[in-house]
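Task 17 of the worksheet. Students: predict the tertiary structure of the chain below and write it out as C-alpha cells. Keep your answer in the requested format; marks are given for formatting as well as content.
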Amino acid sequence: MTVGAESGPSGRRPGRVTDREQVRQILDLSLRTGSHLLSSGAGTADVAATMAALTSSYGVHGARHDITSATIIVSVPRGVKGAPLTLMWSVEARALNYNRLRRTLDVVQELSAHTPPLDRAHAALDAIDQAPEQYSNVVASIALGVMAAAFAVLLGAGPLVAAIAWATTVVIDRIGLLLGSRGVPMLFRQVAAGLIATGVTLTLEAFDSLPDDAAPSLVVASNIVALMSGMAIVTALQDAITGYELTSLGRFVQIMVSMVGIFLGIGAALRIGAALGVSAQVHPVAVAGWLSLPILIAAGALGSAGAAVAGYARPRAAIAAGIAGALGTAVYFSLIHIHAGNVAASFVAATTIGFAGAVLASRLRVPPLVIIMSGIIPLVPGVTMYHGFVSAIDGDLDDGLKLLVAAVGTAIALAGGVVLGPLLAPATRRHARQLARWSAVHGAVTDHRWLRGGPLGLLTVHPRPVHGDAQEQTASAGTETAAAPDTDPPAADPPGGRSRD
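Model answer:
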C-alpha cells in the first residue's frame, strides 16, 4: 500500500518537532495506529514498540505509552512548549482480524519509511476502516466450521460426526453474528452457543441415530474449540510476560466472562436434557496409532488453515498457519503415543509452532501472530473442558475441578510454548550461519535465504536517522557488523510489512 511520497528532498527525515499542535497531530496518528493494532489482536508490547517507532520517525522522541485493555495513553513529558502533552484514545471492542492487522502493518511500514504529510497518513488509516474484508462473513463462518470438523477428527470422530460438528458450528456462528448485530453482549451470545452445541449432542443421544462407535459428545468439544478460537489467550499471556500485567488481566477477564457464558449454556442444556430423561455421555479419546498419524496431521493442517481464514487472513497466511498446525499436530501425537504426558506434549508442540511461526513469518512476510494463534487451535483442550463441565454440573465437583485445572494447565503450556518458540529462532539462525560458513569453506552450497533472520515481534520498525546523522550511523553499523559477524542481520522487510499475499 503506497501512502505518499517522501517528506523531504533526498528522503531526509524531519528534525525534532517542538511545535505543540504538530506534536499533538503526530501523537493522534500514533494513537489511531495503536488502536488499529490492539483491536485486531496484537500484543501490547508490539503495539507500544510500533507506536514509539512511528512517533520517532516523525520527529517526536521520548514519548511515553500506557496501554490497557480499553485505553491507550501517550504523553510527551518534555521538549514541547507547555509540556507535558498527554492524549488518550479509547480502543473499540476487540475481534481477531488478521486482514486488518496486515493492512495496518503495511501502512505503518510506509509511514515509517517515508513520513508523508499527516493528512495523507490519516487518509491511509481511514482507507483501512472503509476497506471491505478479505472474505464475506459467510466464508468466515464456513471456515470456522471446517476448523471444528478438523478438531473432531483429531479427537477420533468419524466423517458423520465431523460433518455434524461443521454444520453446528456454522449455525452457531451465524446466530452469534445476528445477536451481535443487535447489540447482545458477548456473555449471552456464548450462552446461546453453548446451549445450541450441547442441545445438538443431547438430540443425537436421545434419538440414538448414530452408529454405536460414534461419539456425539465430540460435537460439543469441537464447538468449544471454535468458540475459544477468537479468545486471545496467547496474547494475554504474552502481555503478562512482557510486563503489561494490567492489560493482561483485562484480557483474561474478557476470556473468563466468555468461558462462563459457555459453561452456563452447557449447564442449561444438560439440565433440560436431564428433565427429559436424556443424559450426555462423555466418550474418552483413545490414543491414535502410528498408522493414523497422517490423517491427524492433515486434520491439524486443515483446522489451523480454517482458523486463519475465519480470522480473515489471506491465503498465504492461511497456508503458513496450516504448515505450523501440521508440525504441531505431528509433534503432539508422537509424544502422546510414547506416553510423554498431555501438558508436556502440548508445551513441546506449541514451542514447535512458535518456532515455525517465527521462521515462516520472516520468509512469507506475514505477521507471526496469524501463524501462531491459528497453529495452536488443534491443541486446545476442548474435550477436557467439556468433560470437566459435565462432571461439575452432575455434582462431581472434585473430578470436574481436576479436569478444568488440567485444561487450564494445558492452555498455559500452549501459551508458554508459543512465547518460547520465537525466542529460539535467533540462536538457531546464528548457529545455522556458522554451519553455512563452515560448509562454504569445504565447498558446500547453502541457500542463504533461510539464514537471514528478521525481527521476531509483531512488527519492528527501523526509522531512518534524522538528517545529518545518516553517514555516521551507517559507518558505525558497518564497524559493528565487522566486529560481530554472528549477530542477526536486519531483514530487508520486517514480518508483517509489505505483505504480498
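Marker's comment: The chain is about 65% helix and 5% strand. The CA atoms of residues 147 and 303 lie 4 Å apart.
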